[in-house]
Task: inverse folding
């Protein structure tokens, strides 16, 4: 009975470390999304035309930012990164068009999927 008590005390030692890394991963996802939004909007401002597929770059930067600061991959971080990328692309497209063009849903889906896959692997 004593040995099982000792084992239960040491089995969750990495839980707090993973929780603190999750916060850093979310910060990385936000930074990556911000960088992607800035790049996409700057391209629109300087080139003078809209290219919605640049939203895929937001997903890639979001996923890599999350994975880099998390120092690894996690499925929870992947879901959070996908949501952040989704919101960032929709927001950027709204800024560019003044409304959300329904045809750009492809860019939104691909962006969120890439952010999830990169951050969770």
Result:
């Amino acid at each position: 009975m004593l040995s099982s008590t000792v084992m239960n005390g040491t089995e969750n030692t990495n839980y707090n470390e993973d929780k603190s890394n999750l916060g850093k991963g979310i910060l990385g996802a936000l930074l990556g999304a911000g960088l992607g939004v800035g790049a996409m909007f700057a391209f629109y401002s300087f080139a003078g035309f809209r290219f919605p597929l640049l939203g895929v770059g937001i997903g890639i930067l979001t996923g890599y930012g999350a994975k880099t600061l998390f120092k690894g991959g996690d499925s929870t971080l992947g879901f959070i990164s996908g949501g952040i990328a989704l919101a960032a692309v929709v927001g950027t497209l709204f800024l560019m068009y003044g409304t959300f063009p329904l045809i750009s849903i492809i860019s939104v889906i691909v962006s969120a999927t890439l952010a999830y896959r990169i951050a969770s692997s």
